[in-house]
Amino acid sequence: MSGGDDAPRTGTMSEPQVRAMFDRIAGFYDVMNSVMTAGLHHRWRARAVDLAEVGPGSQVLDVASGTGDLAIELARRVAPTGDVIGSDFSEEMLERARQKAPGLTWEWGNALDLPYASARFDAATVGFGARNFSDLDRGLAEMARVVKPGGKVVVLEITTPRKPPLSTFYRVWFDRVVPLIGRVTGEDEAYTYLPNSVRRFPGPEGLAAAMTRAGLTDVRWILTAGGIIALHVGTRS
């Protein structure tokens, strides 16, 4: 998951600490995702790709690509003539992605300083990685910069449900069960970081405002999974 500079964010870890954490958990990251979401994360990624409005021949960048599941879904949609680049700042995550899909392009990259020309891609996506940007506005602006006018920027993220019973379940799950799972895996820090990072992240309205500040228009969002998952999309002006 890509981040930014080395300055710690309030109540969390610095970028080198976050990168080291993702390097450590890369080996069981996919298993944990499936456990924590009952396997539904693949369905959410497919919906994110729907919002990107890509097809055969499209050029797409997946930022903070992790072990590559979103990039792999994108690649299915842009085949056979399109191309997807999966970018991340964790080499261990990228190594897992390369093992899963050796035919795709996997590149190290910092989300706050993307090494790509402006207006290069038809769409840019980020799945469960935007909350790890140390500077959300800068990361979104970089995603918008590398997308062609009329192209889409899509953000898939966990959000905090506001109404019971989902809000109650969410608090129990993320505040108690997820850290317990982390303790079992020996990664208390990582699975305490997860609920904290979600709490810090803007709600749907706040993220939409940040995307607008980044130069995107027609920003809209969809809530799914009872309000636990938010999918945002905006158009590069």
Task: Supply database-style keywords.
globular, 7 strands, 237 residues, 9 helices, Rossmann fold, disordered N terminus, alpha/beta
Mind sketching the topology for me?
Layout: H1 15-25, H2 29-37, H3 41-52, E1 59-63, H4 69-78, E2 83-88, H5 91-100, E3 105-108, E4 121-127, H6 136-145, E5 147-158, H7 166-185, H8 188-200, H9 204-213, E6 216-224, E7 229-236
Parallel strand pairs: 1-2, 1-4, 2-3, 4-5
Antiparallel strand pairs: 5-7, 6-7
CATH class (first level) name: Alpha Beta
The structure class reads: alpha/beta
Unreliable runs: 1-11
Could you give a short account of the major beta sheet? 7 strands, mixed
How many alpha or pi helices?
9
Total number of strands: 7
The overall pLDDT, averaged over residues, is: 88
Q: Looking at CATH, which topology would you report?
A: Rossmann fold
